[in-house]
Amino acid sequence: MHKNLFALGVSMLVLAGCGSAPSQSQTEADQGRCAGYGYQPGTDSFAKCMMTVDVAREKRDARDHPSDARMKSLSIERNGDTRFPICSAAGMDNNLDTVNNAWYGPNCRQR
Predict the structure, then answer these.
(1) Residue 38 confidence (pLDDT)
(2) Which candidate, 11, 93, 55, places its Cα nearest to that of 108?
(3) What one-character DSSP code corresponds to residue 87?
(4) How far apart are CA 69 and CA 104, in angstroms?
(5) What is the largest CA-CA distance in the chain?
(6) Lowest-confidence segment of 19-23, 61-65, 78-82, 96-100 by average pLDDT
(7) 108 vs 74: CA distance, rounded Å
(8) How far apart are CA 56 and CA 26, in angstroms?
């Protein structure tokens, strides 16, 4: 019983570390970048620089990964365009439109 609780506790700690927070090396790189701009750690301007770098990364990530609605729209627009394969479950980035019972994704056409 105690071994199971211990194993559960260890598993929860490991999973807690798998969140989307920046990695330690990313944080260090960001700190180095802001320090390179001349900001002193512990100051308001340094904190603002860190926040600006983080927001810019989030915007870049969002731009690199199209939204679900955008992917669906692109897949529908590509209907009949044989340059794109038909979307299926085989595509790692594809999703299922349960209303229309059709697959859609960033690099394929819906039908």
Answers:
(1) 94
(2) 93
(3) P
(4) 10
(5) 61
(6) 19-23
(7) 8
(8) 14
Question: Would you call 95 helix, strand, or coil by DSSP?
Answer: strand
The residue type of 90 is A
Element at 96 (helix H, strand E)? strand 95-97
Query: Which pLDDT tens digit goes with each residue over 10-44?
Result: 554 444 444 455 678 889 999 998 999 999 999 99
Question: Helix, strand, coil % (nearest 5) of the chain?
Answer: 55, 5, 40
What is the SS3 assignment for 109? Answer: strand
Q: Which is more confidently placed, 3 or 83?
A: 83
Q: Report the chain's terminal Cα–Cα distance, integer Å.
A: 54
Model-level pTM? 0.42
Total residue length of the chain: 111
Q: Specify whether the CB–CB gap between 44 and 75 falls below 8 A.
A: no
What's the token pair of residue 75?
Answer: 């897949």
